[in-house]
Specification:
Helix content: 40-55%
Number of domains: 1
Strand content: 5-15%
Structural class: mainly alpha
Radius of gyration: 15 Å
Largest sheet: 2 strands, antiparallel
Shape: globular
Length: about 170
Amino acid sequence: MGFYSGGADDRGRTLEGILAWADDTLENVHDYIQWVFPTRAGSGVNPSAPLVTDATISAFMSPALQDRLRRALNRMLEFYGLTSSTTSGGSVEITIDPSRFAQRSRNWLHPGNHNHLRLTRMMESLQALGLEAEAGALQRCLLIDVFGREGRNRITRQTYEYWSGALR
């Protein structure tokens, strides 16, 4: 995938450039997430974004591309007030970042927010591109940590269902 190998999207933006954006820019620009986290399904918001194909999946077996995908994930987790770590046993954990979540969640943790769809896309993309552990850890965090502790009245039932069904 050219974008993940140092190429640019249809607007001339690189992965490195996008990952360096301030939180406000990540929030207010709506056509980058489809490039950073591609899926098999096309996007009505950004029809020129790449789709995951069998060739894309094969390319993402590369440790270098997986590392870049993890960096993209970690940047977005920071944006949402979440954090990723690896346990001593090698398992991936995604949890609420106590130093950022209260402030960052004010931006996205309310019914009908477009970031809920972004999070669904992220899980689907991570799974499709070989980061199944990260996809599962994000799903667990959203369903248990975020919804279970923080968001029962701040996330719609429909969002909960999207998050629940994001991984196959």
